[in-house]
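ok so for the tutorial part 2 we go from a plain amino acid sequence to predicted structure tokens. step 1 is just haveing the sequence, like this:
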Amino acid sequence: MRLTIVDSSEDPGLSQISTKSKIEQAVFFGVLPDNALDLSRYEKKTRTQPELENAVLAISHEILTSQTSMNSSSPVSIEDNLARRAKALNTLISHVRSSYPPLSRETTWRLLWDAERLAAGQALWQVSEKHRANAKLEEKPRATLLHECVRMLQEVEYTAVKQIPSSDEQLRQMFVLQLAYLDKILCHAYSVVHDLVEEGERPAAFILRLASEADDIWISVLEIALKFRVENAELYGLQPDSMPEGILTDDAAYIKIPEFWTSGQTMLKSIGPLTKLAGQISESAYEAETEDLCSKVAIENAQLVQLTCHMYEERGHWTRSRGGSRYLAEAKALRENGIKARTEQLRDLVNIGQLPAALQLAEKYRDMHSLTRMIVDEATYLSQSYGESAGISKEVVKPRMDENTARIGRYFRKFGDEFGNAVFDYGLMQGNAGDFFKNAQEHWGKYLKTWLCADPARAKLCWINDVMADKDYAHASGMLKMIATEQEDSLWSKEVQLSLAKLSLLAALPPSSSSTDKQPMATLLEGELLTASTQRRVYAYLLPEIHAAIDPPAELEIALELYARTTRKYHPTLFAQLENTLGKVVSHIALSLEELIDALTLTDQYDTRDPDSSLHESSFYLALQVLNVNWPQLDPGRAEYLLRLIWKRVYVSTNWGALNRKNESRPEDETHDLLRNTPLYHTVMLGTDNLLFTQGFTQILDPADVHDAGTTATELAYLQHGADWLAGVIKDNESMDRTLLSAIEKYKCAEWTVECKRLALADLEIHREAEAADREAEATAEAELEVATNGHGPGNGDAREWTADEERDEYVLEESEGEEGEEPMQVNDRWARVREGDSPNWAVKIEDDEEAEQVAGSEVEGEGAEDVSMGED
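step 2 — the prediction. this is what the tokens look like for a chain of 873 residues:
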């Protein structure tokens, strides 16, 4: 070997060798076999980092574009040329990483992108050769799609290159000089196919072949580029685990990295339309002679959908890493557009017969929306086909149905509730929801039960499933109760649901048990049913006057005019509240507890001719009764407030002024008659007779205990009404307080309350004694009848006669009990009175010589009578 040594001191230009030159020598000559020179060493005092990185990037770009003198720009073999250049880029990164300081992330990725383009170019060359061979075999040889893309690139994008007439030579020059523009080539591939379809002048088969070539171009370039990225990540100092399938998954990893060439904005706008267009072409061009090519395009369509997902994912990560509101908004839009595009593309895949590929992609991206729609639609289609098929056709469809059912089961095991929620949400909204529901009960009952229980809105389906599939009657009862109390507006529907809940609870009892009385749920259901039936009593009370009205608004107007006069006059906010409540009553809308109490305690009560519908004596008792059956489910503060409110209205509704006549002007019996006609007397009488005050929450409260009920915002806060409503209700309740305070201070309300309770208890005892006497007299009469009929009483005669007597007595007793229930009750004249007149049991205004008082109760005639009412002037 001969070496020529030149004195560089005489030539300043030779005194220093540039970093770029040193690296080039190492890359192109250091790799030669049997090389005696070690070109990998470098000076410790090397050039600056920017100089190093600029030199490396320049060498990499020159290799990619064949602008270095070390590579021929007119190679004989394109394949060999591409391989040598790829080898040079591999040597470049290996040499720089082993001989120089670490490169920045930006430079590293730029070098990797150049290598990706070159690797993609190698794959594209193979595709190009295949397309050229196929084109020559056609009846009329033609240029390939890639030829046309290169021509467009030469004319539009790459004007610096001298125009070459030969299309084949243009194609070769592209692989040698223009691989940096691969992304442009891809976009032109879509444009050419799109323009030809828009023109509509070429045969469908010709368009189909071009669409197939476009698919090949996109798939070969992008798939190889991403594959190369993963396989060579470690060579470039990157972590392959951070980029599954070639896509970085962490936003932070994109910081300080330029835009990725594999997910540019223009490419993203081209691949989606190309995917859709290719699918449409394969579907419309399907014929016997094009069947294979259509199948190829359909299969490749799934690969394009996958690449589209990759591009949206990569572009989204990169955009978010930029930071700032503009980029974040763009990233959000990208995500939404990506999901929308994927949903449409998966649906298109199904339309061209690629259901397995579409399901695989939806499963991969956990796209439950698309997965459930495809799987349920397939189940619907197969079910309908099976029903319409016969014989051999059924044998073909049945395995597919079983396969689809097994596939759904696998998704349940893999995704759990995430899939269950989606599949049931969609499946039970379709036309064959009944079949789907039945199939779900049979195969996926556990997941169906979880889905049904997850949302109260599904309770109606849940209880049906409990009864039909699971035989879980106790849970069904709970669901029905929840539906009735929380979801049903219709009173009739509420009663039906409650009745079904009670029936389900009975069905849940073990065979040895025959009663639900001791169960809390049973007590609760009885209370809800009682509340609903009480509302029906309110409507029955209004019905005689409103039955002739033409519509519910007219019914409400009549009801307010007849039964809300006092409240309208003295308490405007409570009247507005009562108006809304009575509107629900006449429309048969279920009332809340507070609304039902208002309907019972704020309406004017009249003594109607029909005792079954009259609320004249029982309204306040019924209010206490519904409170008593509901109090276990109420907050203690709420229950206490409602109890005090009811008793407060009882006392304010009583005509205390009429009871304060001078003793010498009124006999005791007349005073007692007045007491017996007060709401307080009726409430105490009925409550005591029915054990209301000894079995439960309710009790008799004195007037002093109920003063100021409902006059604080704290008491009313749970109702969650507006501030104006709250202030109005407090004002109305304070008005009642003034009336009650006047009754306590002026009219001996407390003393009369004690006397009224004593009288009620005494009358009740007399009533019970009279009932006992009636029962004893009835028993005596039955015994005398027995003797008169048979000549002996029970126990006489032989065993056969005794048995016959027992059976007859039981029958007679049942008959008498049934008849007794139909006869009107006989009332002792001592404690019953007939009230004349038609005045309401509410307040009227009575004026005397001293002052005008508002009173609640019947009008009282006579000089000196002083009354107290619910209102004030």
